[in-house]
Amino acid sequence: MARGNAAVAALCAAVLAAVSAANLQATTRYVWPNSPFPLFPYISWMFAAHTIQDAVDAAGEGDTILVTNGVYATGAKMVPGAVLQNRVAVTKPMTIQSVNGPDQTIIVGAPDATTNGYGPNATRCLYASNGVTIVGFTLSNGYTDVMVGVPPFAQIAGGGAFLLDNVVLSNCTIVRCKGFYSAGAVADYMSMVTRCSFVGNNPSNDGSVVSVWRDSVVSDCGVVGGNIAAASGSCVLNCRQEGNVGYAGIVAIEASSVLNSIAAANTGGFFGAGGIMAISSLVSNCVVKDSVGVVQGALYAEGSMIQNCSVVSNKGSVGLYVVGSTVNACKVAYNEGTSMGAGAYAENSLLANSLIARNITYHGTGGGVYAGPGVTILNCTIVLNTCLVAGAGLYSNYGTVVRNSVLDYNLTNTVQSVVGTNVIEYCVTHEPGVGNNSNYAQFVDYAHDDFHVLSTSPCIDSGTNGCVYSDYDLDGNWRIEPAGGTVDIGAYEVVPEPVIVWSALALLFGVRRK
């Protein structure tokens, strides 16, 4: 008996020593729903907490919480200023990480029992603020409250996760969540959602599944069945989004950016592009494809910069719809429209160094480009577009300026290529104008969409250097070599073959010519 008491005393002394150490420095705490002795401060697997929230409440700043396999569907905590419950709520800097990843470690929220959906008694999966990092969980079935009056934003947004102030959510799967705004996750104020998957969530009131605000980032994520929204200087990076209905697949507003991302198989509503919508923002190196734009096209831009993007194989109103924007080095092809401009519709915008090809409008005008007022087109290749009414290549009655461009090979039932009173100069086209050439452009293989030109093409060195927008063409080659020269016509420059100087090689390698 004495030996037993001594063992218990030793165990208690060890626990007390561990508690003292944990209070002095950052430590690791453990969560295991089947631990035999869940004992504060949860500093070993034997004494691990049964709920994540218990370990969070015990932790200090800088601690790490390791969570092993299990379904975590009990316990709840509110945060100041909001009455919504959270399965896990953490408001001080620490790391919470699963041991075996999201497939084995699941945090489950709950709908409001009285509504079976939104409501003040719903439970969100996760709330995190102030420098928290969360890695490797599935967040499932989280809900928020509904909009009544003017509730705190944290009350109604982010059914899966609400992240505020330098929080990172990484390597997580968010499924079957619903928020009045942003069904899956909200990241606000320099927070990040990265390497996460959003599948099967119920798109919210604004159509979004994940939203990033105030200099936040969503990167390397996949989103199916809802959109991604970025606002106030935030960024969507290396993401793939698909399958949204009623709103744009990716939305960027207020000086935000969409980079290296794909929006596919979306259907826009009466307001909202099918693929990407950008307002006062940047869209670069993105692909918009296989989407339907009901009114505002597959990619809609207002006061924005669109560069190095592909807008291909979309249907509906138009592929690319730009107002007060700049489009540079883009490919707009194989889009099908129903009215004005199957390829591109533009107002007060610049289209430069771009390929607009094989677009078709079935009932309207402007198969390639329908230009409203204030449009300039520089170094574009606008070819093989089709229109059943008029202006297969370009339709404009607003004095569109077209220079250094190929505007030919477009077909309509009436006249070929261009309709309207426009300024067309230094182009390969059948239209009259200074410096124009009516000979064929001589593409490498237009039947297989290779619209580079042969070395015998009239496009070579035939443009005007005073109307060059960018230093680089659609391929990223120099428009005008640093040593000088004249710009080519069209989207692509002809790159000279390298010149091998035999005498220099002979001197370098000591070989003799036979």
Can you put this structure into words, describing what you see?
This protein has 514 residues and is mainly beta. Helix content is 8%, strand content 35%. The strands form 6 sheets. Strands 1-2-6-9-12-15-18-21-25-29-33-37-41-45-49-53 form a 16-stranded parallel β-sheet, with helices on one face. A 15-stranded mixed β-sheet has the order 4-5-8-11-14-17-20-24-28-32-36-40-44-48-52. A 14-stranded parallel β-sheet has the order 3-7-10-13-16-19-22-26-30-34-38-42-46-50, with no helix packed on it. The longest helix is centred in the N-terminal third of the chain and has 23 residues, at 2-24. It is elongated and about 85 Å long. The model has no long low-confidence stretch (mean pLDDT 89).
Brief overview, please?
By secondary structure, the protein is mainly β. It contains 4 helices and 55 strands. The termini are far apart.
Produce the secondary structure layout.
Layout lengths: L1 H23 L3 E4 L20 H7 L5 E4 L2 E3 L4 E3 L2 E9 L4 E4 L6 E4 L14 E7 L3 E3 L2 E3 L12 H4 L4 E4 L3 E3 L2 E3 L9 E4 L3 E3 L2 E3 L8 E6 L3 E3 L2 E3 L2 E4 L4 E3 L2 E3 L2 E2 L3 E4 L3 E3 L2 E3 L2 E2 L7 E4 L2 E3 L2 E3 L2 E2 L5 E4 L2 E3 L2 E3 L2 E2 L3 E4 L2 E3 L2 E3 L2 E2 L6 E4 L2 E3 L2 E3 L2 E2 L7 E3 L4 E3 L2 E3 L2 E2 L6 E2 L5 E3 L2 E3 L2 E2 L5 E2 L3 E3 L17 E3 L4 E4 L48 H8 L5
Parallel strand pairs: 1-2, 2-6, 3-7, 5-8, 6-9, 7-10, 8-11, 9-12, 10-13, 11-14, 12-15, 13-16, 14-17, 15-18, 16-19, 17-20, 18-21, 19-22, 20-24, 21-25, 22-26, 23-27, 24-28, 25-29, 26-30, 28-32, 29-33, 30-34, 31-35, 32-36, 33-37, 34-38, 35-39, 36-40, 37-41, 38-42, 39-43, 40-44, 41-45, 42-46, ...
Antiparallel strand pairs: 4-5, 54-55
